[in-house]
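U., I forgot to send this yesterday:
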Amino acid sequence: MRERGREGMEDVQDIVLGGLETRYSCCGGVLGSAGCQVAKLHVHDQKENIKGFVKTFVKSPPPDGNPGVFAVNCEVCYTAKGLELTQVTVVDPSLQVVYDTFVKPDDEVIDYNTRLSGVVEDDLKNTKTSIRDVQAILLNLFSADTVLIGHSFEHSLYALKLIHSSVVDTTILFPHRLGLPHKRSLKSLVADYLQRIIQDDDHNNSSENATACMELVLWKVKEDLKGKK
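Result:
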């Protein structure tokens, strides 16, 4: 079984002598080569579990008129129903983590997706927080006008089962040179624009990812303002 990361679901093509060579974007393996990951059971990410979605509310503006800006990162595992939330992190514009928790999936875990999520079985062993608990916290923290930032953010919104329209997606803000459906990884964006390395040795960290998304947007805003002076 070959598993590919959320940021690289498509195959990639390289120009080689005599034509194009197609490789898997997860590991660089040639198309048709043996899978780079092996598991006891087959997993899928089909969007079958569509119950339990909630929508952010329209609220009265706060005294300062600022509905808030937050970066959100989610990690997921594979269950019999597909992808389910295992961790969520929320970071504010001052780069402070305002919410971070592991989440107990509703269904039995088939694969913790540790290679991509960084979450292991022990992280969830004593966790009692459910996705409904997370939704309650976020609906209190956010309003319909709050700006939420993320990378390939549709995945996070689906994992949270959250309907929200005021979003900034770093894959759109910093597009791939080939255009959609190609997307640049968060790691490459941070290396190019912030000149530092994240996910070192492919170690994933939810807080680091959320912070990186916020920093990228803050960097972009500052650069755009420079151009208007």
